Amino acid sequence: MKLNLGCGNKIIEGYINVDKFDLYGVNIKHDLEKFPYPFEDDSVQEIILSHVLEHIGQSPEIFIKILKELYRICKNQALIQISVPHPRHDNFISDPTHVRPITIFGLSMFDRALNEKWEKNGAANTPLALIHDVNFCIEDSSYDLEDVILTKFNTGEIDKPQLDYMIKHNNNIVAQINIKWRVIK
What we know:
The chain is an alpha/beta fold. The protein has helices at residues 60-73, 90-93, 104-108, 112-121, 128-132, 147-154, 160-169, and strands at residues 2-5, 16-19, 28-29, 44-50, 74-85, 136-145, 174-183.
């Protein structure tokens, strides 16, 4: 089973399209902040969350419940494909329905092996995978740069260290973050 959660108007063939609102002919109408989700344990092979996670789970308790529910319904090795606006981009900042910034490091806090490494090294990072008995591993991540920045990088006007600095310190450099998150059971 493949799910397109929070699909809005992006109905994808071959996926079960789920949204809180049934404006575009979704397959299942369901609020992702209501539990449990209408799927069996270990039944989902792939999930698409395209511009969804930044809209849900404003309170830490609800956000954790969402992630635990994703873990419950996913099979071992299920892939969760996440796309979100970068938290330092006007696309994130200007939308009043965005309630939570999603970052690569934030999602890595749900990686059990990384949590165990942090504990071994005495790091102060919160071991959320161990606390909540979930295990998600970031398999891949990428940034979609603003066109003007991408052009400057591709023409050599900006080198990699400059680009990395700009991404870390400036607004409106990265428009979108793409993350492939693997479920490990």
